[in-house]
Amino acid sequence: MRKPIVAGQFYPRGKEELISSIEESFESEFGPGRLPAKREPKKLYGAITPHAGYRFSGAGAARVFKEVGESAFPRVYVMIGVNHSGPETCVSDEDWETPLGVVKRDKELVKALAKKGMTIDNEAHHGEHSIEVQLPFLQYISKDHEEELRIVYVMIADDDYERWGKMILDAVEESVKEAVFICSSDFTHYGDNYGYTPFVGDVKQNMEKLDKAAADFIVKKDPAGFLAYTNKTRATICGKYGIAVLLWIMSQIRKPRGKSIGYYTSGDVLGNYENAVGYASITFS
User: Fold this and answer.
1) How far apart are CA 28 and CA 238, in angstroms?
2) Second CATH level (architecture) for the domain 15-284
3) Domain coordinates in residue numbering, the chain
4) pLDDT averaged per 10 residues, the chain (length 285)
């Protein structure tokens, strides 16, 4: 069992406090403004959502999970996260616990990924927060399918997006048949704290300009263009490799249309842009 590591830091440890924090994220000025409505049969293929503390990025996550909660419920959610501390792309073979309960892994898909050569490394996932912070939102919007909820957790650590994208997509098609793919990533990390100050004035506008250009490649499902842009600008998008994998998968499915549904920064929350992080919410439907 993978126990929560950032409960009490990135989000509340208590169940009721966590539910209140999630609902506040949905209703906040940077969020969608309301809780998810009734689930509809419309298809959602994938999404990108931020992964900071809920005070900062909860509203951005809420924009994405409102769309997830109002779309058809899939056999499995493939959660694509960042490996902030290691060089290995790997999958978790554990169920994950949050203050809202236990989220079960899809054993069939994990087995299919391992058979295709993806490393199972539970220990690597024990120290990584990028997927964990998404789970309470997913549990909240999946209350109507609580017993059916199944997740697979993959951390991407390098730029071989075609290799990993093909491995994941083939494993899905050969086992569970269909999935929704959710990638966890913040966008530009600006300021001396992050070692990234490509501009010194008009930080709010320049961050948005930098991240919007990255989002343009994303909604076009262009992984090569996206990575070339991040390399050229040195944009500090922490989940860029996971995003590239998601874009490759979306390009192969072909039907999904990318759409940017929200953007703001931690500077907007604090009113201070000396050190700030961008939060983009993007869906593919």
Assistant:
1) 25
2) 3-Layer(aba) Sandwich (3.40)
3) 15-284
4) 97 99 98 96 98 98 99 98 81 98 98 98 89 98 97 97 99 98 98 97 97 99 99 97 99 96 98 98 99
